[in-house]
């Protein structure tokens, strides 16, 4: 243990020697013995004692009290006053120097030792406290987070300098502000709720004394802008454990909050996409079976119509059956479009022209209370798209917008612009890669969409319209078409503010509109056709239709049997007409096997829906045509005749 150094300041030489002797016997080191205030100050600077024993009534220019004050102020050395008398004035002056002890002569040796030891202990505690305060102040003043303390009345007692970088205030400005000047009104309620709850728990005394209080607020900057901040605070306590104030840390979490909000938005969109995919899978299966039923209805109806005289009253009934079947077929096409399983005939397309044509078509059908405005400039670019489906997107969105304004009237605005998406502009467009897009926006001034409906508006059959006013497929079809074209639909809507549907489609540069292929004459022939479909009713009606056209037809419901027939005599058939979705062997697998035997065999692939193969994929395999069921007789005739004629023309 290090021996404490003690300096004695006493103008009575005998008394000074006595004290020196006593202290030496106690084991203390005597730093110096001086007899005046001036000597005491200079010796203290030179010797740096641990404790000074100071006679309060020194003679000379500096008395003991003034000398003690200088020593304490300059070096923080603890001082113990020694005096043979005491009066109120001297005590008052001495108290201002913050002495560590006060001994009135004569005093006991034990009393002297106890006073010195207490002074040494107190001095050590003060030193540790100063070091600790300096360390934590250094941390506080260099931290990015704002550190602060307040008393239980809400008065600020400390704010770290980092408040300037965080909020633009100096510590003094921040400390002088009320809570309303530092956080937004909405956040005050959250803070008060936590504050009152914690005070109640503190009063009960049963809660964790070291529990932190955490609350997220929107903090104000000096320029009145706001940012998200997290406050973590705990009670400051006195030596009896009573709460006397609060120590808090305010951290800027604005970037984290934006990331969380973006993640939540992406998760919502992902859940929506997964839901749509699941519904799409179900819808595709239903569409397949329903198309097979429709194919039989349409086929037998057309055959029956052909057998009736032109003046037969039954023809009108059959026409109504065909019209109903056609509407059902169109509904299935919408379902397949929604599930992105419908084949799309895409060509380079001038979207502005399509939009102008669609609006011209719509004008007559919209109420006079709806004003149409358009901003459709020439030349913003082209997209690779199916013209019919782009018409449908526009018609569905405009019809939906007009319905939102049916009672009050309003403005329907359609605009087209070229935009580059990337970085922050692509937030919310989770499936779009950065690049150039055409933005087709349909905006209305209707009542807007309630938040609880926004996540469901693209669900098939979801509608807020009354009975008979809508099927709930309009926006689902729009969603399916746009996603199928590599784009995305973004909705901006609030109740009372109207709605805007923004369709983003990838821009196609450097392309011209391709010419459409002319129709093939709908005639029959006498060629030999092998027809394969696992639905017996479809192969039977197919045979009757084809035989009516003059073809020689062999049918089977088994692709394995069809392959055996073909293997036994590859030259016996001029065309293979096969369904895609069949048990044990798909139409594509059958076509590959047959073309492996005879490469020049023309193949037509039919399907009720396309899940595993597209038209482009089928054609790359060598399949001549890829068509969707149900096919009307005229369409079937044109398709078969076209394939056979092209195949005959390709032969050497």
Q: What can you see in these coordinates?
A:
The protein is of the alpha/beta class. The protein folds into five domains: 5-138, Rossmann fold, CATH 3.40.50; 143-252, PAS domain (Beta-Lactamase, 2-Layer Sandwich); 262-337, Helix Hairpins (Orthogonal Bundle); 347-506, Histidine kinase-like ATPase, C-terminal domain (Heat Shock Protein 90, 2-Layer Sandwich), CATH 3.30.565.10; 528-650, Rossmann fold, CATH 3.40.50. The chain is 45% helix and 21% strand. A five-stranded parallel sheet has the order 2-1-3-4-5, with helices on both faces. A five-stranded antiparallel sheet has the order 7-6-10-9-8, sandwiched between helices. Strand 21, helix 18 and strand 22 (625-628) form a beta-alpha-beta unit. It is elongated, with a radius of gyration of 46 Å.
Write the layout of secondary structure elements.
Blueprint: E1 5-9, H1 13-26, E2 29-34, H2 37-47, E3 51-55, H3 64-75, E4 79-83, H4 88-96, E5 101-104, H5 109-142, E6 146-151, E7 156-159, H6 163-167, H7 171-176, H8 185-204, E8 213-220, E9 226-237, E10 243-252, H9 254-307, H10 314-338, E11 347-349, H11 351-363, E12 370-375, E13 383-385, H12 387-404, E14 410-421, E15 435-444, H13 451-454, H14 474-484, E16 488-494, E17 498-506, E18 528-532, H15 536-548, E19 552-556, H16 559-568, E20 575-579, H17 587-597, E21 603-607, H18 615-620, E22 625-628, H19 633-650
Parallel strand pairs: 1-2, 1-3, 3-4, 4-5, 12-14, 18-19, 18-20, 20-21, 21-22
Antiparallel strand pairs: 6-7, 6-10, 8-9, 9-10, 11-13, 14-15, 15-17, 16-17
Helix pairs in contact: 2-3, 3-4, 9-10, 9-15, 10-14, 11-12, 12-14, 16-17
